[in-house]
Amino acid sequence: MAIGMIMLAFVLSIMAGMKRDMINQGTSLLLGHMQIHAKDYRPDRSIYDAIPAGRSDLLGQLRGDPSVLGAAPRVSTFGLASSGNKSIGVEILGMEAAAERNVTILHEKLIEGSLPEPSEQSQIAIGELAAKALGVSLGGEVILIAQAADGSLGNDLFTVSGIFRSGLDLLDGGMAILDLGAAQSLIALPAETIHEIALRTASPTDAKTVASALERTLANPAIEVSPWQTLTPELSSWVAMSDSWSWIMYVIVFSLAAISVLNTMLMAVFERLREFGVLAAIGMKPRSVVALIVIEVTALAGVSLLVAIAIGTPLLRRVVGKGIDLSSFSDGFSVTGVAVGPIIRGDWVFGDFAVGAALLFVCAALAGLYPAMRAAAVDPARLTRGEIR
Amino acid sequence: MKFIIFLALIVSTASAANPAVGSMDDRAKEIVDRVDQLMRGDSSRADIRMEIQSKHWKRILEAKAWSKGTERALIQIRKPVKERGTATLRAEENIWNYLPKVERVIKIPSSMMMGSWMGSHFTNDDLVKESRMITDYHITISFDGERSGTKVWEFTMAPVENAAVVWGKLVLEVRQEDYMPTWQRYYDEDGEMVRTMTFGDYRKLDDRLVPTLMEVRPTDTPEEYTRVIYQDIDFDVDLADEFFSLRNLRAQRLD
Amino acid sequence: MTSHSKPAVRTDSVRKIFKSGDQTVAAVDGVTLEIHRGEFAAIAGPSGSGKTTLLNLIGALDEPDEGKVWIDDTEITTLSRGQRADLRKDKIGFIFQSYNLIEVLSALENAEFVLLLQGVPPSERRRRVTEMFKKIGLEGLENRRPHQLSGGQQQRVAIARAIVASPSLVLADEPTANLDSATGAALLDVMQELNQEIGTTFVFSTHDPRVMDRASRLIRLVDGKIEDDH
């Protein structure tokens, strides 16, 4: 049972860790915990559906809000990146590198160079795969073409200032990062026009409530604040799936625990038939015998819990601290558009574990019921007949 | 295609009178052959004007266009000044754009074929697809009679099995008196109409009756359109294959 | 030996039948019996004569197939298992041939177990058990585990367990069978003393003539029937 508990804690920890990593990776890479758009912007992402409020006013208001830890304005469109005779379709994202650092960790994913700075309007950062597809390296030149807001064919020449590797093919192969101003001028948008503000809050967990609170604060019916759950339904369904996996784990562990309790207690009852006969003979009621055994099982579960805590804590500390290095198997993988690194770190799961442990007690007690009933059914008359040794 | 590029992509559909498609309605084949004959020109040079009306802006482009056979075309924008020299070359299945602002030639990747050509309601794919359409569609006469006092034929084109085509169905109306197309409708694979092309201003240019106005309207945003107006056309001009080169794509004042 | 008007145990034509294959054997075959308070009665007979079964029946450990058993005016055949357990707890003490102490409990804890079941408070339990231990010569052995005690000592703990709750009736199933004769005799001394001092009613089964000699009443059982009762 102790092994079951350790296993439960271990798996719950890994799953919680993966869930945390998934959410953190999924939100911190580029998404942010939530995003602000014009109501009509998603999902078509038309460049004409800009946020209908003054950019500086809105950003000022957001940055003054205590629930907002970072706010990064962006413009976004789709276009063509080309170098030499190679071309690929890309999403063009204009951003303020300084503001992004407070919201996302794209800058940490650069393997070369840096994100485009406002002082250098002709800089571009692209992903590793895009660089490969275009055959460019740092300092190389990339042409971007995109439909501009005035109908003309926006086109400009950029120099690669940074190459990033996020682990997500979608980003690494199809994203071109410009400075906000450069992107605006490429597609002929005025400086006040932005499509998106990505926000970081204290924790991605309560994004839904913070987002709706923020939406009320902004009080602009044409502006929408979407938490990451809305922005990446894949990620939130993955999270839901991972939660249901936790439940499957519970069921497995509890079944194992219940079977082990049943087995142990049945053995114990058969070994102690004489004792139960004596107890019955001297006047212990059957239901008291049941209670006695259930109490014993619960005590056993308690001891198991203590053992599990004693052995499991250092183990978990390792899983949470150093994580499990899967790099010998793979370089990491991507799940529903989120890169999961080769090292999976667990998370402390006190709450879940407490629930699990409590359920385990109930489970053990229930599993103890049958042996208990067997014990209570021992006929004390068999004692004197010498049938029970 | 033997006509200049936009007209080409329409009429080529009708000219799918390919004997290889055996099941084709004989009469339909005969008529579209005739339409094709009328429009035919081994090569052409045209001055065109393109009006693009979108929800957010209106643009007017003026361009010069050259074509040869079904597979070669070059369009060079002359106005507005800001975009002068911007050009598109089509040779066989490939499309390149030249951008004078950055002085670079860009090859359009196949993933961008459904993207808009120069912000218009034409796609890049519209510029290259006609050679495929010859073999890709069955043609039948779906109407033969009078509409608004004019005798017309209506042809319905359905893709042959396993054809790699964009459209689920095409319907073309042609005037019987002079074999001029009047409109063509494009349907997606679910049978929903996607856009309509309308022809008009039939005029004799270089001794040939042609529709000098073509207008494409997307069905879901009918307030938007792209209108192509032929101001002048010369047929059967002397153009070598080498004329449709990347060097000429970059040439500033081609004539 | 005083006879009280109310019997501690009364049976009326009880029969207990055991099946073994196609054979049915009446282990107890129509026994009618009264045992009065303060008696020190022995049920004797060769093995297989039904004495243990009879003991089980009058101890409410078993139900007769026919006939009735009263313990202190309570007719046990109509009781549920739980009610019979309660009855045993309150009215009957058991002493088994093989002591049947609970290994994990100390001598004192074993002896006070019935009091615990009766809900007697701890200090009272301790007082009564300590007193009883003193009386039967177990003083100083309170904290020993059963396996740390001799057979005679274990059986004394069993006696203490049976008697400390002042039952109407103490049933002892061949209590000295596992003991050497000196220890057995000493144990019988203890039982007899208790019988005489506190008036505890004892009924024990035995086939040992030395034990029978001590009894104030000897009930001989042969083939499930009372052959002799005096």
Structure in words:
The complex is a heterotrimer of chains A (389), B (255) and C (230). Chain A is 50% helix and 21% strand. With 389 residues, chain A is an alpha+beta fold. Chain A folds into 2 domains: 2-19 and 235-384, no CATH class; 34-200, no CATH class. In chain A, a hairpin with a 2-residue loop joins strand 12 and strand 13. In chain A, helix 1 (2-31) packs antiparallel against helix 9, helix 1 crosses helix 11 and helix 9 (233-271) packs parallel to helix 12. Chain A is elongated. Chain B has 255 residues and is α+β, with helices and mostly antiparallel strands. Chain B has one domain: Lipoprotein localisation LolA/LolB/LppX (outer membrane lipoprotein receptor (LolB), chain A, Clam), CATH 2.50.20.10. Chain B has helices at residues 5-14, 26-39, 124-128, 130-136, 246-250, and strands at residues 43-53, 58-68, 72-79, 87-91, 94-99, 104-107, 137-147, 150-159, 169-175, 181-187, 193-205, 208-218, 225-235. Mean pLDDT of chain B is 79; it is low at 1-5 and 8-24. Chain C has one domain (37-61, 80-229): P-loop containing nucleotide triphosphate hydrolases (Rossmann fold, 3-Layer(aba) Sandwich), CATH 3.40.50.300. The longest helix of chain C is centred in the last third of the chain and has 17 residues, at 181-197. Classes of the chains: A alpha+beta (389), B alpha+beta (255), C alpha/beta (230). At the A-C interface, helix 10, helix 11 and helix 13 of A face helix 1, helix 2, strand 6 and helix 4 of C.
Mean pLDDT rating of chain C: 87
Principal-axes shape call of chain A:
elongated
**Strand tally of chain A, please?**
14
Rounded to an integer in angstroms, the radius of gyration calculated over CA atoms of chain A is 30 Å
- The CATH topology of chain C corresponds to Rossmann fold
- Biggest pleated sheet of chain A: 6 strands, mixed, barrel
Helix content of chain C: 25-40%
Shape of chain C: globular
Q: What's the number of helices of chain C?
A: 8
What sequence of helices (H) and strands (E) makes up the elements of chain C? EEEHEEHEHHHHEHEHEE
Q: What is the terminal-to-terminal distance of chain A?
A: 29 Å
Name the chain pair whose interface involves the most residues.
Answer: A-C, 21 and 30 residues
Main CATH class of chain C = Alpha Beta
